[in-house]
Design goal:
Blueprint: H1 5-72, H2 78-98, H3 103-131, H4 135-143, H5 146-232, E1 236-241, E2 246-249, H6 251-257, H7 261-264, H8 269-272, E3 274-277, H9 287-294, E4 298-299, E5 304-307, E6 313-324, E7 330-339, H10 341-364
Helix pairs in contact: 1-2, 1-3, 1-5, 2-3, 3-4, 3-5
Length: about 375
């Protein structure tokens, strides 16, 4: 059936809105990538500043530990000293990695590494002299001011290092703020454009909806007629959703299974429609399950019995089929079955009669 003019307009408008949304998404996505990059660089700068502060703290701890040992001669004061040395090495290595993109900062880290090595050499010398009870030499070493000179140089170099990072932080913060402002403008303008397009489409849909109401009413009446037909059928009819949960049973199905629709609805088909083999009394695979798996009509095997809700058993035959929507998508299944207990009884009686006749014939011919 050819699409009406209004429907073509609606499809065109929907495609336009989708295109605008895709374009807006791409632009927004690119802005978010930049935004994340700016945040990443900003966090990176914070990390460098934090590491540089921790480095200075570690050096102060080293000086404090050495000073405590010299004054008291107690080895417990060397614990913070040793820890500070290990921490300083770790921080210098981290700063080297963090500033690998910045040649100037790399040079400062290398200079810091040299100064800190010389500072720890000076501290170790004081510890060595104290261990060997050379108090006068320790005093001379302290009074020489060499250790203080190294520490002042380290503080100056660290100050330059931190100033450079703070300038980078300022630049990156400004870029981040600009990115946020641009992103907000894009979001507002894009939202306005999409809202206008959606409003236009809504008007078209409103007009189209009035046209379709009469068709929907006819479809409803058709479905009502179909439902009444299904309910009044002599065979049992059970339909399920895609999860094999019962959504409909007609009166005949209620009578055959012993389950009423209100109780059965939402239950698994395997609970309400429990079937077994006549010969083995073992469960038989539910045909509706196979119908959904293979997407085709499936017939029940012979000699099958249905266990009703009250545990009584009846002979049945049935067929199951998948239910597809207009687009061919599987939405559920339906099983149609009937009681053949009387038929089965008659067949068994005929079989027995044939056996009796054969026996009589055999006896007479002896």
């Amino acid at each position: 059936m050819k699409k009406g003019l209004s429907e073509k307009f609606i499809i065109g408008a929907a495609i336009t809105i989708a295109s605008l949304q895709i374009l807006l998404f791409i632009m927004r996505y690119n802005m978010l990538i930049k935004f994340d990059k700016h945040i990443e660089w900003k966090d990176h700068t914070y990390e460098v500043l934090l590491q540089s502060n921790e480095l200075l703290t570690a050096l102060d701890d080293a000086e404090t530990g050495q000073r405590g040992f010299i004054i008291t001669g107690n080895d417990k004061f060397l614990q913070p000293f040793n820890g500070a040395r290990e921490k300083s090495s770790s921080i210098l290595k981290s700063l080297k990695e963090l500033t690998i993109d910045n040649v100037t900062q790399q040079a400062r880290v290398n200079s810091l590494n040299n100064l800190i090595e010389r500072k720890f050499t000076n501290l170790n010398e004081g510890i060595y002299l104290e261990r060997h009870h050379k108090k006068n030499n320790v005093i001379e070493l302290v009074q020489s001011g060499v250790g203080k000179h190294f520490m002042d140089s380290i503080r100056t170099l660290l100050s330059d290092f931190k100033t450079a990072e703070e300038n980078l932080l300022k630049e990156r913060s400004e870029l981040l703020n600009k990115n946020m402002a641009d992103s907000s403008k894009l979001l507002i303008s894009g939202t306005t454009l999409v809202f206008s397009a959606v409003l236009f489409l809504f008007i078209l849909l409103f007009k189209e909806n009035r046209r379709r109401k009469s068709s929907e009413k006819e479809l409803f009446n058709s479905r009502e007629s179909y439902s009444k037909t299904m309910i009044s059928m002599g065979d049992g009819v059970i339909s399920t959703n895609g999860n094999l949960e019962i959504i409909f049973m007609n009166k005949a199905a209620e009578q055959l299974t012993g389950w009423d629709l209100a109780t059965a609805i939402g239950k698994s088909i395997d609970i309400v429609f429990e079937i077994i083999s006549e010969k083995t009394k073992l469960p038989v695979p539910n045909p509706i399950r196979k119908a959904l798996q293979e997407n085709k009509v499936v017939l029940l095997t012979n000699h099958t019995m249905l266990i009703r809700k009250d545990k009584s058993e009846i002979f049945i035959d049935d067929s199951a089929a998948p239910i597809l929507d207009d687009e061919g998508t599987l939405t559920g299944g339906v099983i149609i079955f009937r009681d053949i207990s009387d038929k089965k009884k008659t067949e068994n009686e005929l079989v027995q009669i044939n056996k009796d006749l054969e026996w009589k014939v055999t006896e007479r011919t002896k």
